[in-house]
Amino acid sequence: MKVPIGILSILLSILGFGGLLYGTSSISHDGWNNPLILITIIGGMILVALFI
Q1: Against a cut of 0.85, is the pTM above it?
Q2: Average of pLDDT values for 42-46?
Q3: What is the DSSP letter of 7?
Q4: What value, to the nearest 5°, has the Cα angle with vertex 17 and ends 11 and 45?
Q5: Which branch of life, at top level (predicted)?
Q6: Torsion sign over Cα 23, 27, 29, 31
Q7: E strands present in 1-52
């Protein structure tokens, strides 16, 4: 029996967890005041929420 692959789920999880990982790992170098870090963390949270 073939199980369909959810392309949208794969994209949401990769981008969401990738954004969270990048944002949290960059905090120590750039600090919380960098808008790119805040955008990637918030965006990652939104994408993971959509994935769930």
Answers
A1: no
A2: 96
A3: H
A4: 100
A5: Bacteria
A6: positive
A7: none
DSSP states of 18-43: HHHHHHHHHHHHH-TT-HHHHHHHHH
- Distance separating alpha carbons of residues 2 and 5, to the nearest angstrom: 9
What's the length of the chain?
52
CA distance 26 to 50: 24
39 vs 23: CA distance, rounded Å: 8
pLDDT in tens, 3-43: 787 899 999 999 999 999 999 999 988 888 889 999 999 99
Of 48, 49, 52, 50, which Cα lies nearest the Cα of 14? 48
Residue where the block lists tokens 């790992």: 25
